[in-house]
């Protein structure tokens, strides 16, 4: 990434050696000169954790795998209730009760075994008397019940962008996470359900995107 947090050298910026915004070099020029151009060490890096292996890991634990089945079980309950009550629900107490989700299931966009995700990004203040020191983007797994999905242990990190400057081109930083998601949506993610000892294919569905982007977007 750019040493001033302008952008990440991903996607359309992958082959650049100089940041087009601040004109700072991508690589440590001293090391580059000493190695006669052979050793390219980035001035700064950010870290990503692909969502696919994290979803697979949730299904490998017996308790976690049972918790992950909430999505499918609740969806079946809602479908049966709609059929019995002339397409009306008694209460709308969950994301799955919303018409957008129900319609997506009816149209086959979300199928049995598919993981439903929410993407969120915001700045994080690591020190008490200082503004945001880094920016983090995360995944919330809607397959878990509402009382579990927002617990700290179930909120999954996807990327950490060091500061102290605000990211200017956010798209470039979230590119690897969304590129990975797009790949497993297209190809399918093979999962072993340890609670039932079966293997199935999941195509994660991105249901919601939220975050404090504001003037950070270029």
Automatic annotation (TrEMBL):
It comes from the Eukaryota. This is Uncharacterized protein. It comes from Serpula lacrymans var. lacrymans (strain S7.3).
